[in-house]
Design a protein that fits this description.
Elements lengths: L33 E7 L2 E7 L2 H7 L2
Antiparallel strand pairs: 1-2
Protein name: Small CPxCG-related zinc finger protein
Length: 60
């Protein structure tokens, strides 16, 4: 997978793009891309969402 801090708008193949945690669609060149980050058991975790609506629907 691509580094989540990278510029996802360039040279990202669909197979390398992060998938939305809610709808599972690949996130490519999306200005609505959201990343939720938290620390759990001393490790940094994150989830990608294609939009604010998908983030809200995820329900966690």
């Amino acid at each position: 997978m691509v580094d989540p801090t990278s510029d996802l708008g360039e040279d990202v193949d669909e197979s390398d793009a992060p998938a939305c945690a809610n709808c599972d669609e690949p996130i490519l060149q999306s200005p609505t891309h959201r990343v939720v980050t938290w620390v759990e058991d001393g490790a940094v975790r994150h989830r990608h969402f294609c939009s604010e609506e998908c983030r809200e629907e995820f329900g966690e």
